[in-house]
Amino acid sequence: xxxxxxxxxxxxxxxxxxxxxxxxxxxxxxxxxxxxxxxxxxxxxxxxxxxxxxxxxxxxxxxxxxxxxxxxxxxxxxxxxxxxxxxxxxxxxxxxxxxxxxxxxxxxxxxxxxxxxxxxxxxxxxxxxxxxxxxxxxxxxxxxxxxxxxxxxxxxxxxxxxxxxxxxxxxxxxxxxxxxxxxxxxxxxxxxxxxxxxxxxxxxxxxxxxxxxxxxxxxxxxxxxxxxxxxxxxxxxxxxxxxxxxxxxxxxxxxxxxxxxxxxxxxxxxxxxxxxxxxxxxxxxxxxxxxxxxxxxxxxxxxxxxxxxxxxxxxxxxxxxxxxxxxxxxxxxxxxxxxxxxxxxxxxxxxxxx
Length: 354
Hints:
Blueprint (H helix, E strand, L loop, with lengths): L5 H9 L4 E4 L12 E4 L6 E5 L4 E5 L4 H9 L3 E2 L8 H4 L7 H7 L6 H4 L2 H4 E7 L5 E5 L11 H5 L8 E8 L1 E2 L3 E8 L2 H12 L5 E7 L2 E8 L1 H15 L2 E2 L4 H5 L2 H4 L4 E7 L4 H8 L2 E5 L4 E6 L6 H4 L4 E7 L15 H14 L12
Parallel strand pairs: 1-2
Antiparallel strand pairs: 3-4, 4-8, 5-9, 6-7, 6-8, 10-12, 10-13, 11-12, 11-15, 14-16, 14-17, 15-16
């Protein structure tokens, strides 16, 4: 099913039993059941005002189309959307609705926040076929329930997005990366020190024995901040491909299960050493990508009480392992209440979360 209008989408939902919601099919994790509901026909830019740094697009609009439109005005989506097709073995076209549904956010999250923090408004259709709008086209204080934040990262479990609006960002004048060879403990300590400094870091990552610190902004400011950090931490400027880190290319071609961990940065070293897995660390250790070659690492036990782990890519033959972590009882009760409100028939992506 591929509705071209919001009205068609509403009619489909009202008559459906179980729907597996899909935009471009590039970000799906877990094993949802049901008939495929393809939202890619809900596409098009509704509004773009470069002077107001505002963009409104239908949910099925390809991300590449949005990136090209913004680039022509030297603007961008600040939260640096990852492209995980290589890691997950997908060939689809990423859509902006899928970006929001996954709350997909890259290295710059340490500075500007996640996808949800750039969202101004959403339109979606709930499990009874009702069209709901929340937020708007400017930043303002929210009254009532903030459905904009709720829908970001909901993975289609509460409603089908039809339109999203964003604040966008001007591309900075200059960008510099500072690099040093560091063992993991010292590297992450350096990154946390950089983030705690007054020098406005836009990237803090460790991979393959190197720690990397990114600075962006006006040329004079970047040069000053880079000089201060180089003196403080004994780093040097070097060319770094941040898209490779963003897209986890270092693990994409290697066999094994791949996990995405969101944890306390101060616990990253302990978790990596305890599991013995190859790691890529972003957000100064707050985000870990781990490769478990034989699928035997007890990843969820290692992060119990300090974060959560999502199985992004399972080993062949082990897909029965739940992709998403089990929820604590209190959280599970809240989740059940939200689903009862927005999807009382349980038709959206059944089976995906567990």
